[in-house]
Amino acid sequence: MKFKKELMRSALISVVAGLGLAAANAQTFQVVNMVPVASSNETCQDSEPNVAVNPLNPLQIAGSAFTPDPGGSGNSPLYVSSDGGHTWTLVVNLPGSNIYTNATGDVTMRFGRTSNVIYAGILNGSTGNLNILRTNNYLANALMTTLVNRSGVDQPYVEATTSGSDRVYIGNNNNLPAGPKTATVDVSQDAATAAPPANFVNPPDLIETRTDATTPSGKQDGPSVRLAINLDGTIYTAYFGWRTFSPTTTTDIVVVRDDNWAAGASPFTALLDTNDGLAGQRINGTTPVTVPWYDYLGTERIGSQLSIAVEPRNSSTVYVAWQDGASAATSTMHVQRSTDRGQHWNGDLLTISQATNPALDINVYGLVGFVYQRLVNPGTCQGSGGAGCWETHFRTTTDGTTWSDTLLGNVPDMQGATCTSTSFDPSIGDYIHLQAIGKDFYGVFSGYNYPDTANFYPGVQYQRYADFGAHKLYADAAHTVEVTQLSIDPFFFQVSEPAPTTLTYQGDTTADYHDPANLAATLTDQTNGLPIANASVQFTLGPQSCTATTNAAGLASCTLVLDQCSGSYTVKANFAGSALYLPSSDSKPFSATPEETTLSYTGDTAIANGGTATLSGVLLEDNTTPVAGRTVSFTLGSGGSAQTCSGVTNASGIAVCTIGPVAQPLGPGVVTDTFAGDSCYRPASAGANTLLFAFPASGAFVVGDQSAQMGAKVTFWGAKWSKVNSLSGGAAPASFKGFAATLSAEPPKCGITWTTGPGNSSNPPATVPAYMGVLVATKVTKSGSTISGDAKSIVVVKTDPGYAPDPGHAGTGTVMAVFCHP
Question: How far apart are CA 273 and CA 285, in angstroms?
Fold first, then answer.
C-alpha cells in the first residue's frame, strides 16, 4: 500500500535568533522560499520537500517537492541553488509525472561526501516505479541516469557518503503489495561511476525479521525506513515493523545496525533484540505501540513519521524520533537516545503532542538538531480564517535534557490551491528533512504561503513577488497581476551554528609591580584550526583589564602596567563569542613580584661632632621613578656608637632625617641608608664614607682660599701664616697667625665673619682635634689692633702633630673634606 503525498509552499526568511545554545551565542538562520521568482505565478501544491547539500561545497544545494515542470515536459524538476540557498531555480532532471501532481513524487536526494555526485530515489510519476538516479552535474537540465528501475516500492529515502568510494543506501518499503516482509535497504558500495545498476545489490537487503501485519493489499511494514551513517562504517536503520493493521495499526519501532558498511554476507544483523534475539532492537520492548495510521492532523494525514541520526564523533550514540498514538488528537512525538549502539534506550528525552514530520541530525560537535511541525488549533498565525496553524520548530540540545526552541514558521493549516485537477494527500508532506554539514544545519519544510510578516521571524522575504503589507502574491515585479489562489510552498532553511573556538593564553605570567606585563592570546577555529582575525579578546589580571583585537594570525595582545603588589593571581583571556563563533577562554597562574628599587645616599658626609647632621637618600624604582611614602632608615657610624634616624620618602622619593647632637669618633666613618622593602618594592640600601670632625671649643683656625684645595698641605697656625697662605683678596697682615678668636656665629658656618687680635693674643686653644673644621678666608685685613676676615667655606683638616698655641709651633695638616661650600 503506497502512502500518497500532499504538498505545501514555502517562504523566505533571513533571521538571526538567540536559541539559548548553552545560554550563549545566536544561531544564524536563513529560511528561503524556494519557489523561484520565474515561477511567481504558480499555485501548485509543492509539498513533501527534501533537500541535499553537497558536503564538498555547501553552496551547492538541491531540493525537491511535488513540483511539476512549469514547461509541461512530462518530466519533473529539482530546485537547485549554487549560492548556499539564497536563490533557487528549477532544472528538469527527474523522469516522469502523474495525474495527481503532474510531478514525480517521493523524491529524496543526497550528495556523495567528496565526489560531487548526487543520487536520487524517486517514485516515477509516469510508472510508479522506484527509480534510483545519478548525476555528476546537479545543475544540468538533463535527465539523471537511471541506475535501478523496480516496481512495488514506496517512500524511497536516500542516504549516501564517501569512504574510499561512494556508498549509497536507500531505505524503502519493497515487494508491495505481496510482502510478506517489506522493510528494505538498497545498497551500493561503489555507485559513482559504474554503469547501471552501479553495483546496487539485487535483490536489495530485507531488514525485517518478524511477521508483518496483514493489510487489504498484503503483508507489509510501515512506509518509513530511515538510515543514519557514521564514517566508521556503522549504519543504523529505523523502521516501523507493523504487527496489526485493522481495526488498529500497531507497530514495533525497530532499529537495525551494520558495523561494516552493510558489505558483509548478512548485512544489518549486528544488533540483536534483547528479548527475542532477532536482528533489530525494538525500542518499544515486546509490546507494539499504536500509530494513528491515515488519521488527520488538520489537513495533514499522519501515521508513519520517523527519523534517526547518529553522533558523528561516536557511533555508539544514536537518536530516534517517531510519532505514535491511538488517534491524531492524542498523538505524541517521541525522541529517545541509545548510548550503547542501539541496544538499550533510556526513555523519552522529549515529547510533543499533535506533531508530525520529525527530522533529526547531529553536527560535527555533537549538537543535536531536531525539526518538526506541530498543529496548534486555535493558533496565532495570520490569514488562517479561524483554521489551525502549523508551527515549524527547530530545536537543539547538547545533552538531551535542555533544548532550545526556535519557531521557523507559523502558517495557516490550509491546503490551498493546486495546479492539478484536485488536491491530494499529503497536504504538507509525509516528511521534511534536516541535514548537518560540518557545524551547520540545513533543512526544508512546506507550508501555506500567506505573506504576512507576523507568521515569520522579522526579515521574512519571498523570492516570488509578494506584498507583505497587502498580504498578496503577484505574478510580476510591478505587482499588477495578483495571484489570487494561495498554496503550499517549500521552505529551505539553514542554521549556522557558531563555531567552537580555542583561546590559548601565551603572554607574560610574571611581572614586577609597576612594570608592564604583555598579555597575549591566540584565538583559533576548532572547526579547521585556522586563526580568527578581528575578534575582541579581553584580558583581566585581578582588578585590571585591557582589550585587544586579534590580528591575521589570531593573536591579540595588550599591555598592562601592573598596579598590584606581589602575590599569586590569575590572568584570564576571554573571547565573548559572536554570531559566527562560540565563546572561549583560557587562564594561567600569574605571579606579581616586588619592583626593583635603588637607593642612594645624598646627605651630609663631612659631619661636625656636636652639631646636627642632615641625612637624606633618594628611593627610585627602576632607577628612574621616585617611590613615595616609604620609610628609609639611616645609621651614622657603626658599632655601639652608631646613631640612627628615619624619614619617609616624599613625592620625589627623597627621605630626610637629622641626628643631633652628633657624637661619633673623629675621623673616617660610614653612613648607611636602608629601605627594608615591602610587598610592592624590593629592599635597597646605600651608604657613603663620612668624615667626622670637631671645631675648637671657641673660635676657629683659618686658611687662605687659594691654599685650601682638597688634599693640600695647609698651615692653619704659625708665625709664617701670612707667607704660606694665599688669599684671593690679597695678602694677609703679617701679624695674623691663623686663629680667629671671635666668630659672628657659633658653631661656625659658611659666610660668617670673624675678628681677632695679633699674634698669640688671640688665645688659641691648647690642643686641636685630630680632624678639625677650618675656616677658608678670601681676605684678611687689619684696622688698628683688630684683624678681621671672612669665611668663604669650611674645610676639614687632618691635623699633624706638633701644634702648640705658640706661633713658633706651627699647626699644619691636610685638607680632607669640604664641610660647606661658599
Answer: 9
Cell of residue 94, nine digits = 527527474
Side chain identity at residue 687, one-letter code: G
Whole-model pTM: value is: 0.73
Q: Is 350 exposed, middle or buried (0-12, 13-18, 19+ CB in 10 A)?
A: buried
Q: What sign does the dihedral 84-90-92-96 (CA atoms) show?
A: positive
pLDDT digits (tens, 9 = 90+) for 589-627: 999 999 999 999 999 999 999 999 999 999 999 899 999
How confident is the model over 678-704, as pLDDT tens digits? 999 999 999 999 999 999 999 999 999
Those residues whose C-beta lies under 8 Å from the C-beta of residue 401, and which sit 6 or more positions away, are 349
- Gap between the Cα atoms of 606 and 171, Å rounded: 106
Q: How far is CA 414 from CA 5, 10, 236, 405, 487, in A?
A: 15, 13, 36, 24, 8
Which one, of 334, 324, 332, lies nearest residue 291 by Cα? Answer: 324
| Coil, strand or helix at 21 | helix
Nearest alpha carbon to residue 364 among 128, 526, 190, 187: 526
* Nearest-5° Cα angle at 685, 683 to 686: 160
Under 8 Å between Cβ of 344 and 351: no
* Integer angstrom CA distances of residue 447 from 549, 583, 683: 44, 35, 79
Q: Are 336 and 283 in contact (CB under 8 A)?
A: yes
Query: How many Cβ atoms from other residues are within 10 Å of residue 49's Cβ?
Result: 34
pLDDT > 90 fraction of the chain, expressed in percent and rounded: 89
